[in-house]
Design goal:
CATH superfamily of the largest domain: Glycoside hydrolase/deacetylase
Low-confidence stretches: 5-22
Number of strands: 8
Number of helices: 8
Helix content: 40-55%
Radius of gyration: 19 Å
Mean pLDDT: 92
Largest sheet: 6 strands, parallel
Strand content: 5-15%
Length: 243
């Protein structure tokens, strides 16, 4: 009897552990589609999208715009609403340079910890900041940390926002050199090519904790990727091309 009870408890604990692991995967793994469809990339391995989170960030966003302009490349910027309120001119410069601008919430919270009303407030306030600065509707949304639940994706779609994740990360939020950031991206690119997929590259031009976060390594890593995968052989797109 005791052994049967222990086995039953063990099986239950294992089942709970598996369920928790599956929920964590669905909520956090960027390529998971379990909680709902999100935009990742197209099916052409020669198509890349450079995407940048957490701006606008003075001075690094402007330096990144100069680099992208030199290479004739357009990118996608997911901006934090409270920073847009502080630097609306940078948001306008991003858009004027031909880049796509998306919603990255007002304050960059961990959305799964928020209730439905708070989620909508974060998305709506960021939309308002962006639309005030740009004079146009925003169509794309990236959840901070890639964290989402069904109610978050539902709220985004009810607000006519397309959720966008990624399938190659530079891990540039860690204190690692530009060469290591580029190596992480290169690993993701090679994995996606084996799968016959395009690549949606995640980098950062800002930091969610403060304005002025040093993104010199992200800038240098971008240049390394553009030199390794030149625009003459790779089509650099904004994510709306895959919508």
């Amino acid at each position: 009897m005791a052994s049967s009870l222990a086995a039953s408890i063990g099986y239950s604990a294992a089942a709970v552990g598996l369920a928790a692991g599956a929920c964590a995967y669905a909520a956090m793994w960027p390529e998971s589609q379990i909680f709902g469809r999100t935009l990742l990339a197209g099916n052409d391995p020669a198509e890349f999208a450079l995407t940048y989170d957490d701006g606008p960030n003075d001075p690094w966003t402007l330096r990144l715009l100069e680099l992208l302009d030199r290479h004739g490349v357009r990118a996608t910027f997911f901006l934090i609403g409270r920073y847009v309120r502080q630097r609306p001119g940078i948001a306008r410069e991003i858009r004027a340079a031909g880049h796509l601008v998306g919603n990255h919430t007002l304050t960059h919270p961990f959305l799964p910890w928020l209730g439905p009303r708070q989620v909508r407030e974060e998305l709506g306030a960021c939309n308002a900041a962006l639309e005030d600065a740009l004079g146009e509707r925003v169509r794309f949304f990236r959840p901070p940390h890639g964290a989402r639940r069904p109610n978050i994706l539902r709220a985004a779609r009810e607000m006519e926002l397309e959720p966008v994740l990624w399938n190659a990360a530079g891990y540039d939020w860690k204190p690692i050199p530009a060469q290591k950031i580029a190596a992480h991206l290169d690993q993701g690119i090679r994995r996606n090519r084996r799968r016959g997929r395009g690549t949606n590259l995640l980098l950062h031009d800002g930091g969610h904790l403060q304005m002025g976060t040093d993104r010199s390594r992200s800038l240098a890593a971008t240049e390394l990727i553009l030199e390794r995968y030149r625009p003459e052989s790779i089509r650099y797109l904004t994510v709306d091309a895959w919508a």
